[in-house]
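retry 2 of 3: previous attempt timed out while embedding zinc ion. Reduced batch size to 1 and resubmitted. Inputs unchanged:
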Amino acid sequence: MLQIAPSLLSANFAHMDKEIEWLNRSEADYLHFDVMDGSFVPNISFGFPVMASIKNEVQLPFDVHLMVVHPEQWCDTLSKLGARIMTVHQECCPNLHRTVQQIHEAGMLAGVAVNPGTSLSVLEEVICDIDLALVMTVNPGFGAQKFIPSMADKVRRLRQMITDRGAHALIECDGGVNLETGRILKEAGVDILVTGNTVFKAPDPVQMVRDLKSL
Ligand code: DX5
Ligand code: ZN
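retry 2 succeeded.
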């Protein structure tokens, strides 16, 4: 069964109590937390104070997606905030292998994300060391963008790489995921679907999570 990680970026921040209430009632597996710095991506979202204020309210483990330069400096902070997964962008990490080590040393699962324009070859040397490979299915920075169809083939090739190398990394996809694109990604071999608008704007988010899970 697919795992689902609702992306907090699409929440209605004026009504966080309501959002947290349905998240805790849902069968979601993670809360996906998009941190943006206005430098790596052309947007700024939210950061540690928000995470700290909801961590005791939300029962889901945090899947933190850092769209920031120098992400390695935040390992200890995120670990103290109880993050389960810390995902960094390959494009932000000249010393990617060391960053993966630092994430592990801080006691978290290590994820590496690649943009739509980044070749999968950058994952080859770390694929056996990481816990999660995040294929961006839109260009990072905003919610509610359109899924890039050619990313399905990228997921298929990544699945093959993981099988060939005997790696344990899960494949996560992020951006433009709905029931239609989610099915395409499932066929391509995804494990975890990140989904913002599709769940947060659904009339019944709990049911939408259930529907996505059982694609
Ligand atoms: C985009 C973020 C995504 C975003 C997904 O840069 O990484 O997690 O919130 O939102 P949707 O599902 O609406 O495309
Ligand atoms: Zn994300």
